[in-house]
What does this fold into?
Amino acid sequence: MSSAAYTRGTKAASVWKRLSRVYYDSDNRFATWADRKNIPASIGKSAVPFSVLILLTLTIVAGFAIGTVIIIVAAFVYMVRHIQLSALNALDTTSSNSSCAAGGQFRSGNDGDGFYSGPDDITVTASRLDREDDD
It folds into this structure.
């Protein structure tokens, strides 16, 4: 039996065996320390599980903190990009609909591109304002 799954299983079992050995060894050391200091053994026995619980809690809190920072940075980048795009759209809108002194708009009309008065409707005749008639 030399499959990859079997190899991973034996590695996982050896890691679990090593971790459990460290856990029980440190648990016995704390219990011995509590016995030498005339402290109840339950306090010595609870030191290792309590420290493991605190370590897991700190890991979860750090994960949430890192996730929050990532979300805040992403939101900031999104807002900046949105502001850039809206400014670009506003610039395009302003350049295509800029008004002249007579109240017209620069747009494409019946006589080509230029300043026209009146609405931008094909059924309504709008006169071109920037045409210089020599009549």
In short: The chain is about 65% helix and 5% strand.
